Amino acid sequence: MPFVKDFEPVSLRDTNLFEPIKIGNTLLPHRVVMAPLTRMRATHPGNVPNKEWAAVYYGQRAQRPGTMIITEGTFISPQAGGYDNVPGIWSDEQVAEWKNIFRAIHDCRSYAWVQLWSLGWASFPDVLARDGLRYDCASDTVHINATLQEKANEVNNPEHSLTKDDIKQYVKDYIHTAKNSIAAGADGVEIHSANGYLLNQFLDPHSNKRTDEYGGTIENRARFTLEVVDALIEAIGPERVGLRLSPYGTFNSMSGGAEPDIVAQYAYVLGELEKRAKAGNRLAFVHLVEPRVTNPLLDEGEGEYYEGTNDFAYSIWKGPIIRAGNYSLHPEVVREQVKDPRTLIGYGRFFISNPDLVSRLEEGLPLNKYDRSTFYTMSAEGYTDYPTYNEAVELGWDKN
Ligand code: PHB
Predict the structure, then answer these.
(1) Left (φ > 0), alpha (ψ -120 to 50) or beta: where does 170 sit?
(2) pLDDT in tens, 370-388
(3) Which ligand 1 atom is the nearest neighbour of the CA of 197?
(4) Who contacts 300 (Cβ-Cβ below 8 Å, separation ≥6)?
(5) Distance CA 298, CA 305 (A)
(6) Per its UniProt entry, what is the enzyme's top EC class, as one word (predicted)?
(7) What is the model's pLDDT at position 1?
(8) Ligand 1 center to residue 38 CA distance, Å?
(9) CA within 13 Å, CB half, 361
């Protein structure tokens, strides 16, 4: 693979990106965060993190001491899943491998945060049916798309609006896996309430048509996410919990900025977090997907939403904010945004192809291109074989 062409790297050494910041119980020496990245290398059956490659992959990306790594989305239960090659952290076998991964990260003096994930309507109804599991959602009167709706009907596993008892079980599973994460050595967890997955399906008025206390109003739509937040504050302490939101996202059939209630919805959630903070329970961070990326499957720079910003979050939530979305090729935007002393920057796709990304950002070095065709393949290729800058120069990548 060559370096990225038509990109003028700029050193960010003299910006706040390389100033320390406290996140939960950890003092980070810099603010480059590895964003959660689905890689589909876990083994089936059992959703076990890949025993051969995963610790190597994470260790490579943790090589710069003090890097905050948010893991790939990790299922809280079989019912929350449905992708065979995504890891979970509910079973002993999974936890044993996560211990190796956290050790590899900590050996570099970096930090590990586990992203806790439930799919809801973004799952595969046929895979769930194979395993005797429901196809869950906020409201079964709306569908993610015609293809999955038809598939669900074909395999006789139609969408299931969660009952209140189902919601209680999900909350228990978040607690169980948050405790497992900490017991296995993680520094904290991130609740995934973004990108159109289950918790986001409850937040969005397009996917949530409920008439009980989990739908119908801004407060009610936020209830499930806030119940998970409160349960994890209680279970592992607020300083070990972060929350990811994507106000403008349209991935997995979310409304995005076109919905007039959207900013109000997220302002409410952030206000509730700030109330908890004022009462002594400040979460470690809020992680926002920027309107720079409304659909993570699109190419770099595509699908940007120009009619809204996440700036409102700063007026409400007074703790640390990680901003993520197409920053690697835009150091000029990073330079501007990190002027705010509470801001960290999440880097995703270019952390896949640049294990030494932090040092490249600091020094203003060229970036390895990534190969999207190996993002989700069951191979070491495209996973543990991307070179550092010096290795890439030795390989002649700078001349390609
Ligand atoms: C994905 O697998 O494409 C994916 C997963 C989680 C996200 C976004 C995208 O939050």
Answers:
(1) alpha
(2) 999 999 999 999 999 999 9
(3) 10
(4) 326, 329, 349
(5) 13
(6) oxidoreductase
(7) 82
(8) 6
(9) 30
Res 400: pLDDT: 82
pTM value is 0.99
Mean pLDDT for the stretch of residues 217-233 = 99
Nearest CA to ligand 1 atom 7: 195
Q: Does 193 sit in the ligand 1 pocket, CB within 6 Å?
A: no
CA distance 156 to 366: 51
For ligand 1, is residue 38 a contact (CB within 6 Å)? yes
